[in-house]
Amino acid sequence: MQIRHQVVTFDAADLSAESAFWAGVLEGTVDVDDDWHMVLVDGAPRVGVQLAPGHVPPDWPDGTPQQIHLDLWVEDYSSAHEAVTALGATLLREATGASSGDDFAVYADPAGHPFCLCWLVSS
User: Going by CATH, does the domain composed of 56-123 fall within 3.40.50.300?
Assistant: First the structure.
């Protein structure tokens, strides 16, 4: 089997907000269809957004269910935090403040899907 593209697809009640958010995070563009948006990066499909009028956001990291989440490894957490919040992300859990190793903060995109910004902490 040859897989041509790998795409994570999010359900969302507001297609425009969700696809614009992920296009901004991934520095891509949005290809719009009636009930489906595809986020393209350098012309290749990366994230799909499917219309789901009754979508209920997960209550995670403190509740259930966690439907799916992305870990995005960044070089500069402060600038990444500013960028995702400016695009509409909500901070759900602040970083632990690790003094070495890995650290992460948990966010939600405009439809409530959780994702983490992760980084290596310099000791």
Answer: no
